[in-house]
């Protein structure tokens, strides 16, 4: 990208770098040694990522201009060696803001530039991955324990344990702490509440379509009657299988129920769920 350095080119002993990056992760972290700092993961247009820290003395200066999901131009910062455990990227170095670092708004990088590279469950489970690095995982939550409050370094901290499964039904247990635990817990509860709402609305909508007793306030709409083409399957015929809807075989009625549920899901599902966001 003309006029900008690439993340892969960054190295120590120089501060006059100029990069255009998207903030794909941002959080505040507290340690006894460093106090409260801002930690970020940045990605450039090539998909290369680098960890970035803002030390406690500079948090107030830069906090208002750093937001997850936004693209920024960063000018004049330090580059130091990345080492230790729990590293967020494979980059050999990391960025450290200094008092003269400049943060400028700019045109956004593509939305699909997420920096998300999910690890395979089996690679996590068999211990073949380097434990110095954090990994991304994606899966369906199939089990979870309610949030616990545990003492960590003398401070009460939230903890939640969830079990994920992938497309091959391989299971992976993960533990989340602090606000991340609460975010996941809130999302699980929201999804559960939403499922109850969809189920209730679907039931009363189908009952109304069948001309049966229902709660009108829960009816999404009264769909038109199903035209069943299976004369030999309709109630009353020798090979019929009954359904709640008059003049409709069980097969067509099952299809009708699926269509109703899908239609209600499409209209009532929260926007963030349709986008697959957390």
UniProtKB/TrEMBL annotation:
SUPFAM superfamilies given in the database record: Nucleic acid-binding proteins (SSF50249)
Pfam families: DUF223
Domain Replication protein A 70 kDa DNA-binding subunit B/D first OB fold, first and last residues per copy: 3-106
The protein's name in its UniProt record: Replication protein A 70 kDa DNA-binding subunit B/D first OB fold domain-containing protein
Record organism: Brassica cretica (Mustard)
């Amino acid at each position: 990208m003309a006029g900008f350095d690439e993340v892969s080119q960054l190295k120590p002993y120089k501060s006059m770098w100029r990069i255009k990056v998207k903030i794909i992760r941002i959080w505040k972290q507290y340690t006894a040694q460093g106090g409260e700092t801002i930690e970020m993961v940045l990605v450039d247009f090539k998909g290369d990522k680098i960890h970035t820290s803002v030390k406690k003395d500079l948090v107030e200066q830069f906090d208002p201009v750093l937001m997850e999901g936004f693209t920024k131009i960063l000018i004049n910062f330090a580059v130091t060696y990345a080492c230790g455990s729990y590293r967020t990227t494979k980059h050999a170095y990391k960025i450290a803001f200094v008092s003269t670092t400049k943060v400028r708004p700019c045109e956004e990088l593509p939305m699909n530039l997420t920096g998300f590279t999910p690890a395979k469950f089996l690679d996590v489970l068999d211990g073949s991955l380097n434990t110095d690095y954090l990994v991304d995982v994606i899966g369906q939550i199939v089990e979870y324990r309610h949030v616990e409050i545990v003492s960590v370094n003398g401070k009460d901290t939230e903890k939640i344990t969830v079990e994920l499964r992938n497309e091959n039904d391989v299971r992976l247990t993960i533990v989340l702490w602090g606000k991340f635990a609460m975010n996941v817990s809130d999302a699980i509860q929201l999804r559960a509440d939403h499922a109850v709402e969809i189920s209730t609305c679907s039931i009363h909508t189908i009952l109304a379509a069948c001309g049966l007793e229902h709660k009108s306030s829960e009816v999404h709409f009264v769909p038109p009657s199903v035209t069943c083409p299976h004369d030999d399957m309709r109630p009353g015929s020798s090979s019929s299988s009954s359904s709640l809807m008059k003049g409709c075989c069980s097969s067509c009625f099952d299809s009708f129920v699926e269509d109703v549920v899908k239609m209600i899901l499409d209209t009532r599902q929260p926007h963030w769920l349709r986008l697959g966001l957390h």
